[in-house]
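Blackboard transcription, Thursday session:
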Amino acid sequence: MAEKRVLELALATPGVDAAGNPARLPLVVETPRTAEPELDTDHMLINIGPQHPATHGVLRLVVELDGEVVVRVIPHIGYLHSGFEKLGEYRHYNQIIPLTDRTDYLSAPANNVAFALAAEQLMGIEITERCTVLRVIACELSRIISHLVWAGTTAIDIGAFTVFLWMFQERERAYNLIEEWTGARLTTSLTRVGGLMADVPDGWTGRLKEWCAKFPKTLDEVDRMLLRNGIWLGRTQDVGVMTAAEAIDYSLSGPMLRASGVAFDVRKDHPYLDYDSYDFEVPVGQHGDVYDRYLVRMEEMRQSVRILEQALARLPDGPINAADARVILPPKRRLMSDMESMIHHFKQVMEGVPAPAGEVYVPVENPKGELGTYLVSDGTAKPVRWRIRPPSFLNIAALPKMAEGHLLSDLIAINASVDIVMGEIDR
Amino acid sequence: MSGGAAENPSVAALRSRFGAAVERGAVQLGATVVWVARERAHEILAWLRDDADQRYDYLIDVTAVEYRDRERPLELVYQLRSLPRGLMLRVKVDLAKDRPLEVDSVVDLWRGADWLEREVWDMFGIRFRGHPDLRRILMWENYAEGHPLRKDFPLRGRFSRSEQVRRALGADLRAHYSMEELSIAEAYDALPADVRERLSPDGPAGR
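(Written on the board underneath:)
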């Protein structure tokens, strides 16, 4: 269990009063964590959501309350179910990429990359160096965007409105960069099997570098507001604790797993792209509470900035698409003058690209946790099965375990700390 | 399809310990897949989790695959990871379509399997014996069109759009609560008889 971290509020700026005694007030918000004496009351059933600002999407929680204490939480999901996995069985590999945008819509570029990696592994395609580095940039940029939304919305749930504004301002700047690159802010469809939909525009890397230099200042300012804020500590420390063993048992992943003290990060443990050649740290918590999840995600954003800077420094010139006529459409100029190119183009678009029979499971470290893509092919151009291993789905499944016994207001803080996206949970 | 990668040593260990219950092993694009008999799947998965040389302590995913070839059995797929050993193993269970689609639940081994197995039940209609709460999860409780990820399920659903709308509008709002939840509020007894019947375990609530 977490030891209580004690904080004091200075009542006078030199820290001592006229008599020379420390003029301080202990600032530990003690919230009762146990039920009041049994008053023989009926348990109450309340329904939170699916339309509720604190459920972060169309999550519905049926909560059994004893006074203000949560006895039982029964989550209901599926309100955003769109049958993506079923749809995928009827589409060519490249046609699935727009669907991946809409799963975890806060980190669409990272989903695009995850799917493209799996399809490329299935088809045995090598991507170019420039494409690899640009994909790392896309993944880390979306990690920052996703964590910014998490920090903003969690803070607003707990009552700190300013953080929301500061974080969303930075998110807008990051989205401007994404928009310049892909033409879209949320539904980016950035990747293609074997490459990318577009190279970055002229001067883009310079603008990203500028943003990387300025952005950590906002993180420092938010830390200054929250890190030792008495209200924040009281609302987050020792709330929603998951031990390391429990986190593994519940198959948690990403920041949720690491905040509980399990040092597992797909980027380090099963490296993909060229992550094994970057210099970055994986922050790990000790207590597994809401506060540690906050610390872990804030540090992850700083580490992502480090990766972005290294990626910008090494970004090589060259093509973004693999030189593989099976999957990459010929350039438009050749298409209009060369018969063979036109045939290639026609066949790729109309018939799709067949993948050899086989199957592949590719995990990537998404902002929410381990996003796995499991593709099964029977040799045709459409997958037999496209399974998304959704990190939010497994993380939110542990919500009853985390919230039961806490106050109703803590349930909101715990739910916020999980960082869910319903698009991905319901798919 | 076996690539250059070596087979995960766990397969040899499984073979020597469980013999014929380990049906076959293969290396698929660098990842090891092992098929086990459905009757002993739970026992084998428990051993993989607990044996001091295996230690597959992390359940990544549970899902199922149905092939377009109707003769092929359904496959139940467990993706396991050993965090201390940094290894992954894919365990499959073949489920022939001429027998009831049933396997033992692994929720007692990994709590993370709870929702994953519910999703497999919801989407494929595979029952998990011993699951504490095997309800539909993505579809609603009295969804009556079957199991969407089965290959005989049409992309647009079994019912016409007008029938789907009619059912959605005709649904009693109280049917959005499960039996368990209604019992908390002692509201079950107050329900109209038809809703009670629809919610009861023997009723037509999509089963």
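Lecturer's comment: Residues 8-76 of chain A form one domain.
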